[in-house]
Every structure is written in C-alpha cells, then in structure tokens.
C-alpha cells in the first residue's frame, strides 16, 4: 500500500495528497501528502459519505455497473475518488487531490487506474 501511495505522489503531476480509504468505516488506511490546509484523514471520512450516497442512489435508480471514479472540481483542485474493483479491495477507494493548475486530469485518471491494478490489499 505504501509503495502505491508513493507512486501516486511521484508519478502523477500536481498530486497534493493521496489516501487509501475504507468506506465502510470512513478511516484512511494510509495517507501521503496533504498538510495543514489538507487534512487527508478528515477528507477521507467526508468523502466516504460521497461514495456511500452515490452507491445508494445507483441502487435506488436500478443503475447497473460500477463507479469508475467520482470527480469533484474545486476552484484550484481536483479530487478523485476511485473505488477499488479487486476482490481484496472491496469496500476501499483511492482518494487523490490534485493541483488543478499543475495537473492533467485525463493523465491523472489513467495513472490512478494503473496504480490501482498494482495495489494488493
């Protein structure tokens, strides 16, 4: 897990912080980056509610398929929530915060998907 979080921070341009989060409990299992203006533990807990709400809404609407990722766009940041698809990753999501001015959103999503494939929880 630590290796994957380090890879996210070093390979994705504009990465400000990342976390692996358990959305059943809202707890971050690991974090890297962040700082006084970006508390990844608080953000992980709050974004757990986003994942849960979207999952519930999809169930109520009878939508088939899985969430690939959820993008939250702020004035100067992108926040990407990516639920893990592997059996061992059930109930977990990767959380990535990007500096919108320094990052390429399409490349970041592609690289996050690649790192997800390497993650063994």
Structure description:
The protein is α+β, with helices and mostly antiparallel strands and 121 residues long. It has a single domain, classed as Beta-Lactamase, CATH 3.30.450.30. Helices cover 38% and strands 28% of the residues. Helix 1 runs antiparallel to helix 3. The N and C termini lie close together (7 Å).
Secondary structure blueprint with pairings:
Blueprint: H1 2-11, E1 15-22, E2 27-33, H2 40-61, E3 70-73, E4 77-83, E5 92-99, H3 105-118
Antiparallel strand pairs: 1-2, 1-5, 3-4, 4-5
Helix pairs in contact: 1-3
Explain briefly what this protein structure is.
The protein is an alpha+beta fold and 121 residues long. It has helices at residues 2-11, 40-61, 105-118, and strands at residues 15-22, 27-33, 70-73, 77-83, 92-99. It contains three helices and five strands, in the order H-E-E-H-E-E-E-H.
CATH topology: Beta-Lactamase
List the domain count as a whole number.
1
Beta content: 25-35%
- Widest beta sheet: strand line-up: 2-1-5-4-3
CATH architecture: 2-Layer Sandwich
CATH superfamily: Dynein light chain 2a, cytoplasmic
- Which runs of at least 5 residues are low in confidence (pLDDT < 50)? none
- Taking the alpha carbons of the first and last residues, their distance comes to 7 Å
Major sheet, described briefly? 5 strands, antiparallel
What is the SS-derived class? Answer: alpha+beta
- Which series of helices and strands comes N to C? HEEHEEEH
Net shape: globular
Average pLDDT rating: 93
């Amino acid at each position: 897990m630590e290796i994957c979080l380090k890879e996210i921070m070093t390979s994705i341009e504009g990465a400000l912080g990342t976390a692996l989060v358990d959305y059943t409990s809202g707890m971050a299992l690991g974090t890297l980056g962040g700082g006084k203006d970006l508390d990844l533990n608080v953000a992980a807990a709050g974004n757990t509610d986003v994942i849960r709400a979207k999952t519930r809404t999809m169930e109520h609407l009878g939508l088939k398929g899985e969430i690939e990722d959820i993008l939250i766009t702020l004035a100067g940041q992108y926040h990407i929530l990516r639920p893990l698809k592997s059996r061992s990753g059930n109930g977990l999501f990767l959380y990535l915060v990007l500096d919108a001015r320094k990052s390429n959103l399409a490349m970041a999503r592609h690289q996050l998907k690649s790192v997800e494939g390497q993650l063994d929880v």
